[in-house]
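Subject: mismatched residue count in predicted assembly?

I count 378 residues in my input, but I want to confirm that the predicted structure covers every chain. Input:
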Amino acid sequence: MQQVPALKIDGITIGQSLAIIEYLEETRPTPRLLPQDPKRRAQVRVISDVIASGIQPLQNLSVLKQVGQENQLTWAQKVMRSGFNALEQILRSTAGKYCVGDEVSMADLCLVPQVANAERFKVDLTPYPTISRINKTLLALEAFQVSHPCRQPDTPPELRA
Amino acid sequence: MTESGKPILYSYFRSSCSWRVRIALALKSIDYETVPINLIKDGGQQFSEEFQALNPMQQVPALKIDGITIGQSLAIIEYLEETRPTPRLLPQDPKRRAQVRVISDVIASGIQPLQNLSVLKQVGQENQLTWAQKVMRSGFNALEQILRSTAGKYCVGDEVSMADLCLVPQVANAERFKVDLTPYPTISRINKTLLALEAFQVSHPCRQPDTPPELRA
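Triage response: the counts match. Full output below for your records.
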């Protein structure tokens, strides 16, 4: 697909972030990233898919290149506002401390990076209080900090934490 | 659920995402009722307040089952797999499961969202065909390469999986947008094999309750 991420693990290479995460969950099951109950697992997957299919692909680099530089900001903001409207509504019925109840799940792994994208494109987050609250709670966790774009081997010096 | 207790599928005959779920329901012999949501009539019935309450994404498919409503076709299929596990739609081996999910995600995240109705509306009518073809060719290039290492009779080995449920509707989209399939012999072969199966036929867009008369099989 000529995209990141790709993970080389156990003798195979897997693309597609959610396929990677589901593989990690099945082969390294603790701590869990998906609840045990099938209905809650469905909620986690719905939220993850809303972000990974419904929002991000429409505002990724290759699509933005195609809409043209003068349209990029408007397009990206429209896509994200539309998606966040839906997400905010969904989260109001699924969220506890995190996206689904009180355990960190694959949905939370999708939320934080998407909120960061929204901030980069100057999307006003005021209409999305649930998204904002959960995002803030998650960013305080170590795993979300060590993995942050500002702390990577390839982070440019001027953006480093 | 209906009074009879059957699941309810909110579906549009030609929606490729709805078709994926229709195939899953057919393969697992799950009896259900269809509530057609016309994506074009009345400005798009998916935008009604009533439907938005059911599915905030304002998209089809949505499945009302076991007291909950689930949107997102792959989330629906994974739920069906976990609660009605036979026949399987995902292999047992984690590496093969990963292959099935990669192929499904390439289609459900990498191709289809970029050529769905709401995106095409935004690119403008004069650009739609070129845009849709470009998206699909690009995606099918990758898919053809992936399938060459995963496919047997079907997308992953010799058992029908969630990947196959995604492939056939996407190929139908490609045909509607006049994408030449000659560069993709593996995709074409698998598509042809799958279309011969009953579940792929009963779920076909030309056989749905909301199929317009002129498109009916």
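Chain A has two domains: 1-30, 37-147. Marking this ticket as 'not a bug'.
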